[in-house]
Design goal:
This protein is α+β, with helices and mostly antiparallel strands. It has 3 domains: about 180 residues, tricorn interacting facor f3 domain (Immunoglobulin-like, Sandwich); about 90 residues, Zincin-like (2-Layer Sandwich); about 150 residues, Neutral Protease Domain 2 (Neutral Protease, domain 2, Orthogonal Bundle). Helix content is about 25%, strand content about 30%. It contains 10 helices and 23 strands. Strands 5-4-8-2-1-12-15-14 form an 8-stranded mixed β-sheet, with no helix packed on it. Strands 9-10-11-16-13 form a 5-stranded antiparallel β-sheet, with no helix packed on it. Strand 20 and strand 21 form a beta hairpin.
Length: about 450
Amino acid sequence: MPSSRASDPDPYVPHHGSRDFVVDHYDLDLRYRVGPNRLEGRARLDVRAVDTLDELRLDLVGLRVARVEVDGARVRHAHRKGSVRLRLADALQPGGTAAVTIAYAGNPAPATGAWGDVGWEELTDGALVAGQPTGAPTWFPCNDHPGYKATYDLSFTTDAPYTVVANAPLRTVTRRAGTRTWTFERTEPMCTYLATVQVGPYDVVASGEHARVARPAGRAADVRHDLDRHDELFSLFEGLFGPYPFAGYTVVVTSDPLEIPLEAHGLSVFGANHLDGSKGSDRLVAHELAHQWFGNSVSVRQWRDIWLNEGFACYAEWLWSEASGGPAADQLAREHHGRLAVLDQDLVIADPGPRLMFDDRLYKRGALTLHALRLALGDDTFFALLHTWTDRYRHGHATTADLRALVRELAASTDGLEELLDRWLDARGLPDLPPGGDPSSRGAGLRERAARPR
């Protein structure tokens, strides 16, 4: 199948994103009242044309546009079925730029689609954004395509009792007439679906040397107990994957239970049911942290490659288990292989289709692919591959083809590797795992590897 340009519509979400332009920067100035769930926004988008452009189409769902300006001049627009269309007075040539400002307001709500409700979600006391894969347009106008990244500035005003957490470190908080305005540092480049705000009655405290935690005061003891090895986890991942890619990391814990944890650029969100004092979600804490390297810094160009996000994060769970005194990755791999072997064999992980892109089998089979690769390459080459991957594509995009190429580049011998990757990535049937790895690489050996200077 011929590869698509990053600017082409993603075939998994063909009604999101434009093929004609990119947004290099978003400047969002938002006001939100928690009680009535009322959002008012002004978004400035720095647009750059890819092709000759006389019309813009942006994604915005469930909110009403009041005014649109291009380079300071008001223009007419049409807003239907989640798309805002506006004509440019002067066409942009490839590489040409324009500043588009949109004023909008309404009661934000999740967008319902093939993967359930995504986007803006009210909590019992506050709100959160769960953007993956198509939730970003529920709270700001955007070019909602995974193949683009932009920097963001965010100013967010809300009721004074509430705390706001977003994708970058906090710059200032100013209080005025019963409200507080939270202004955040400019982000590193990120995909629209990874943009988020979290609003709630949170206290924000340090969690060891590497992270902050935003949680209700009443959950302090449970959260502290469940994250008591978070520094060890963070250091392990930096040793195995390379330096942490962002300016900071925040763990948000809501008062409400959540169905699943959520990752976003620079933060992860857990429900009260996940960090409840039982340490029952230890693997999920590892999974969401791993996404900061795999998915958030190194991002997919198209959703067909989602296994690069989820397979790596799932395998990181197994590496943490191996290093922290639990079952070794090889043991976990063989257990999950046995479970997958009795399930339907209708999944091609390199192109699962939109219906199966979040199927748990993709997560586990992606992790098994990496374990098979680790066994074939040996630990030295495999972990060198992880470091090279996160460094070469830092704050950018990568594809399955890029991973194949990197394997060929780093492997001492490519004998059998292409066939191994073909079987794991492109075939429906579940391949056999290679023989088990050297027991000396487990546990303490993995920790020693992570501690080696680079």
